[in-house]
Amino acid sequence: MTDIDSVKAVELAPCEPGRLTIDELRTLFLFEKLTDEQLTWIADHGCTQHVDAGQIVIQEGEPAEQFFVLLSGTIALSRRVGQDDVQTTRTEQRGVYMGATQAYIRDDGVPRKYMASMRALDDSDFFVLSAEDFGWLMREWFPMALHLLEGLALGMRSTQAAISERQRLVALGALSAGLMHELNNPAAAASRATGALRQRVAGMRHKLGMLAAGKVAPERLDALVELQEDVIERAAKAPTLTAMQASDREDELGDWMDEHNVTGGWDLAPVFAQGGLDLECLELIKTKVVEPELLDQAIHWIGYALETEQLMSDIEDATGRVSSLVTSAKQYSQLDRAAHQWIDVHTGLDSTLVMLSHKIGTGVKVVKDYDRDLPQIPAHPAELNQVWTNIIDNAVQAMHGAGTLTIKTYRKEDHLIVSIGDSGPGVPDELRKRVFEPFFTTKAVGEGTGLGLDISYRIVVNGHGGDIVLESKPGDTRFLVSLPLVEPSSR
């Protein structure tokens, strides 16, 4: 949505008293059950106001002095998040109200301010009451309802604030624990490989000294060094062996080394087999060495060189994994990115899967069916990552750690669809329509707050102008998130 501050403030046309009759007021759903006497009082104290397209009607943070009821036109409400204005509501429904909606709450010393900004997207008309008059009629005409509304508003505010904060902390803790677990594995592998590498390099220096002490001719030592390079290059290009093939290769190499009196041959055989070397290579080494008494040292020297290369590859893979995890964490958090940008949804989906990999576990098979030709879309990536997190987390819990998680993206008309499905037991029909209600959860006490899907719904629908629906049957439950391919028109 356009930045509120970038639009020149325009003074609204003054209110025009007495423009609505009691019959006209009764057509508004908010007033339809009031008596003629009450409607007359409202008509006497209210006024109508015309606002041109593009004008700011109320500004977030300003004193809440007026209560507005939409008579015609289209309006949009927005909230400021960081440096951006996030559209939360867009409507043209006649009779909707906004502004000083909590003017009835008893004075607790806290100034009442507008909770959102409102802009007229096209020429609009409003019926307006002052906050003072709206608060008075609520307190005088509906005293019992007022007590209930006060309790509901204050109770919901404090409850949602406490639970939302707790949910964020729990989610952060779970993600942090998963990330630390994932980081620990490659870090530990790199540490182990480094320790082993130090030993192998020391052993290689020792074997090289033994070869030199054996009075090997310089040209033969040069040939042996060339052979070592050839062996390492061959190992880098070697095809991956199956477990059965590797076992057979180890037996062949071990028998050859045993026949040629190579010490510790059965320990060296797996290293040569993993490097993709075969009997032909061993025979070539034998030919290059010539002197039988030096064959043992030559085999061990080349074995150390080969294992050194393998350990360095392990370290490279481990540190690359750490770098990949850090990159995924940055993409997930979007801490170094603008709040609103054009994004590839697949990047956020992949980083979310990485962040949740510890929770997903090995029992869940992840199937990705991405349409890589989809264009970028305008979005708040950090918010969408929260949506993916909530839905994927629910899917994994529904499958109890075993099943198939399917993530599919495709285009449908002018929207991009993200389908996240699981093979769990499904959601019963009577519960399906309630899954997006705040505080509604089917989880056991203490396992869920009932806010995850409510937050996801508001992010997708109110924040991005999209939609999110649930389709479910046993073995196939899918959340379909629909996001517009272009910025919503501001008319």
Automatic annotation (TrEMBL):
Residue ranges occupied by any Cyclic nucleotide-binding domain in the UniProt entry: 30-138
Domain spans labelled Histidine kinase: 307-487
Record keyword Mitochondrion present: no
PROSITE patterns assigned: CNMP_BINDING_1, CNMP_BINDING_3, HIS_KIN
A Pfam family recorded for this sequence: cNMP_binding
GO molecular function: protein histidine kinase activity
InterPro entries to which the protein is assigned, alphabetical: cNMP-bd_CS (IPR018488), cNMP-bd_dom (IPR000595), cNMP-bd_dom_sf (IPR018490), HATPase_C_sf (IPR036890), HATPase_dom (IPR003594), His_kinase_dom (IPR005467), RmlC-like_jellyroll (IPR014710), Sig_transdc_His_kin-like_C (IPR004358)
GO biological process: phosphorelay signal transduction system
Catalytic reaction list: ATP + protein L-histidine = ADP + protein N-phospho-L-histidine
Record bears the keyword Transferase: yes
EC number(s) per entry: 2.7.13.3
UniProt keyword list: Kinase, Transferase, Two-component regulatory system
Name of protein: histidine kinase
Organism the protein comes from: Actinoplanes friuliensis DSM 7358
Taxonomic classification: Bacteria, Bacillati, Actinomycetota, Actinomycetes, Micromonosporales
